[in-house]
Amino acid sequence: MQSYWMQSDGENAKIDLREIDIPKPGPSQILIKVHAAGLNRGEFILGHGLHKQGSVKQIGMEAAGEVVDCGDKVSEFKLGDRVMGRCPGAFAQFALIPEREAMHIPTSLSWEQAAAIPLTSLVVFDMLVVQGQLKADEWVLIPGVTSGVGVTALVMAKVLGARVIGTSGSQSKIDKLKPLGLDMGICTRSPNFYDAVMQATDGKGIDLVINTVGGSVFAECIRVMAFQGRLATVGYVDGVLKAEMDIEALHAKRLKLFGVSNKLRSPEQRAEAVPAFKKQILPQIAQGKCLPMIYKVYSFNQLIEAKAMMDSSEHLGKIVLAVL
Fold first, then answer.
1. pTM for the full model?
2. What is the second-level CATH architecture of the domain 122-259?
């Protein structure tokens, strides 16, 4: 089978397509014929630590496909099932998914839609529900709302009954998110959104901040937080890894700050929230209420072009690789 690999020297990365054997499923794994795989910015950013210096590994982190083989301990899936899930080596013609990560694809979803869900939606579920404890009518702020994670956070927060403010450097992208329920869009790439946010929330501030941008907006995010507000840090596409902390605000407002990363978690820890996601969010997806926004679908031999589009930040929502 064909599979994409990436080699890193710590500063640069080289991606190439290789011919390797089709993997065999372990006792609790399923083997799928991949029909589509979603791109995620973090897997290509060397600073995120997913690729060690001098390492070479298969790439791709989420896929959708048809079950073609199962381990002898697999009980919930059978040959021919349409499944999606987080999995290593997703940019390939075949991939292994641990049964605990696999989800049946709702009949209403295409392969491309399904491939855009597993990683991003589970990360957002962690931010909003597991750690964020989001409640109906609370205010959510998403700096960088037009990213794949940002758009998913917007639609899931609206399904959960929240009110959402987002920032982006593109007014045209903000306008395209209004039909998805964006309550207010602020066109800016700078940390200067305090006045607009406080006016929109009648001086209350934000209950849950989803920081997809990084350190350049961190201080402003702290500034706009409400009493007992929560802040999730999920990425740093700005490359700014240090920021000042207003300890007085942290103390007085009883703020909670948390990170959202699977880098140091065990496979068991990563899968802990999957059952709750299946119960709480997957039915909403099946009803068309929490669908991913797909910007563009590239063919399997166009991964380099797909990555270039993602790196340009011109896209709105998810980019998907079709593997037919």
1. 0.93
2. Alpha-Beta Complex (3.90)
